[in-house]
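Quick log. Single chain, no ligands specified.
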Amino acid sequence: MTGRTLQPTYDMDRSWLSASLILSTLACVGGGDPSLYVAQTVVESPAGPDSGEPFLATDGERVYLSWLEAADDDHHELKMARLESDGWGAPTMIARSDRFFVNWADFPSLTPGPDGTLWAHWLQRGAAGGYDYAVRIAHSRDGGKAWSDPVTLHEDDSPTEHGFVSTFVQDDGVGFVWLDGRRYAAGPDGEPASQEMTLRYRFVGVDGSMRAETLLDGRVCDCCQTSSAVTSEGPVAVYRDRSPHEIRDIYITRLRDGAWTEGSPVHEDGWEIGGCPVNGPAVAARGTEVAVAWFTGAGNVARVKVAFSQDAGATFGEPIVVDDGNPEGRVDLLLGEDGSAYVSWLERTGGEAAEVRLRSVRPDGGASASAPLVRSSAGRPSGFPRMVARGEGDVILAWTDLEGAAPQVRVARLELENE
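-> predicted structure:
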């Protein structure tokens, strides 16, 4: 993303802009190397009131938004919409239930898969209630109008947590990575529970067939998001590990020649913490270039960092601090054609007030000043803002707005230029 003049990468009919919601800004945030120019416009959202947990995805041409929305009689609906040239298409419903596990940090996803398929996942409560919930998946072959009957992703049916899913397109199907709490339940012969969260993977073909599960890591942090991406040498997944000494740093595992590598640290922060910070990493890849962003509280100092790899995630350089001194975390990440990472995060601005901010960082350590994007909250209901690139320099941002009478998913378009 180079040059000063902001040029859209596609023809846009500006009638899709909402006159009542426009917050158009042009931010020239230099003072660093590179300088980042951001033109921001808040646009009309397809989500209604009482909505949250947004997720963005793209198939390289189209952008999809999914979210949860409260309905009548204690039901929720998982909905989706596709971004067209003249705005968001009409929302369609993926699933409706009074058994959704609705959680600010463990949100559903929508993944464009091979052969024009769409894949959705969500969390569904079990009979035991509480933190007994399973990962349910379904797919569509007609752009989201009709969906297959949902099935459970994992073989385990113990009354424990299963969630924090990330996905990636793999050959003729989709790869799913998730946190699995089956070791929190006693064994079938009465052996005691080991109280360890595990990281697992499963491939699902476009025909709905499932291969055997694979255990990726036998002891990970209990409730931090996972993130996955595909390099030119194969898929990678990042997650927060949990050592026997309660060190909870960010790890990466790579799928090579049909087998996943043993997890290894992206960087050894040495964050010792006796509980889960609910603050997972984000990964992006382009060819053999990989960038990972994450939050850490090592040394009792909150930091958001990013690290780069030039060998498809096998090794990483020293991390670069991204935040402005008081981060809440909740990161997201895009990787530009020039190798720069565009990292978003929540920065506290006083009390529970926060802003979603964006910074451009190069692999050599050069970084722009941060660009404030939207007001938010450090409280849980604000959730995790999400980004997706519609084209080089053309980014869609989604977040949960808490300033109205009810929470609502909002959307903004960002035009980015790096110099």
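Residues 239 and 374 are 27 Å apart (CA to CA).
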